[in-house]
Design brief:
48% helix; 9 helices; globular; alpha/beta; Rossmann fold; 251 residues; 2 domains; single chain
């Protein structure tokens, strides 16, 4: 990444994993656009990054028109977008039989359609310039399934298949498209989800016991894998899905 004047957009950039990714990219010399529903938090993250030229913006990835407008504005004011990192995501622990179509729509809109929206907005410019890096964060739930996360797992599985397909289409243009699948990661989102079950600490403890390394991932465990796939060192890697799970899913 240090070899080019990179502009990196990170969706969900104010969250646990997203903020860690922003720090890695900034340290590598990129100008980072921290995109998040929480505009204030996004700006705070951007202001704290190493280097210059970083900004925070408000973005609802599920809103197609808003995404297109935001990406066009970034390209015009910060510079052509060379790197897209899709971290934005949302879920709740709910048995499938207790879910509703409204819940399906919300999970799919954020976790899958959000990726469609951002990739669709930045890809034409990357094709025109003959260079680009796209890394989307899915989940090991997409690879092996996860109880109480059927809709989320399906949406993230769609992100994996979509990314592999786009990778085939754009490889000839010098663009790589890859996916990172975290295992259980200690973030405010998952702790909030666990608390809603009424047995948060017990649930988190059971997750920890299932992981061979006997600890949940921290955001800083996930960010290096994403930053690597976004770097020039990974220029010959595309269409891949990398699990970062402490050995939870080795298949």
């Amino acid at each position: 990444m240090e070899e080019r004047d990179e502009v990196a957009v990170v969706t969900g950039g104010a969250g646990g994993i997203g903020a860690a990714v922003c720090e890695r990219l900034a340290q590598a010399g990129a100008r980072v656009v921290v995109a998040d529903l929480d505009a204030g938090r996004a700006t705070d993250i951007a202001d704290g990054l190493a280097g210059d030229g970083h900004i925070g913006i408000s973005l609802d990835v599920a809103n197609t028109e808003a995404v297109a407008d935001a990406m066009a504005n970034v390209a015009a004011t910060v510079g052509p977008i060379t790197t897209l990192i899709n971290v934005a995501g949302w879920d709740r622990f709910v048995p499938f039989v207790d879910t509703t179509p409204d819940f399906w729509d919300q999970v799919i809109d954020i976790n899958y359609r959000g990726t469609l929206n951002t990739v669709h907005a930045v890809l034409p410019g990357m094709i025109e310039r003959g260079h680009g890096r796209i890394v989307s964060v899915a989940s090991d739930a997409a690879r092996v399934g996860s109880s109480l996360e059927s809709i989320y797992a399906g949406a993230k599985g769609a992100v994996v298949s979509f990314s592999k397909s786009v990778a085939r289409e754009v490889a000839k243009h010098g663009i790589t498209v890859n996916v990172v699948c975290p295992g259980p990661t200690d973030t405010p989102l998952i702790r909030g989800m666990a608390d809603e079950l009424g047995s948060g600490e017990k649930f988190m403890a059971s997750l920890t016991r299932a992981i061979p390394m006997r600890r949940l991932a921290e955001p800083d465990d996930i960010a290096p894998a994403i930053a690597f796939l976004a770097s020039s060192d990974a220029s010959y890697i595309t269409g891949q899905t990398l699990s970062v799970s402490g050995g939870l899913t080795m298949a």
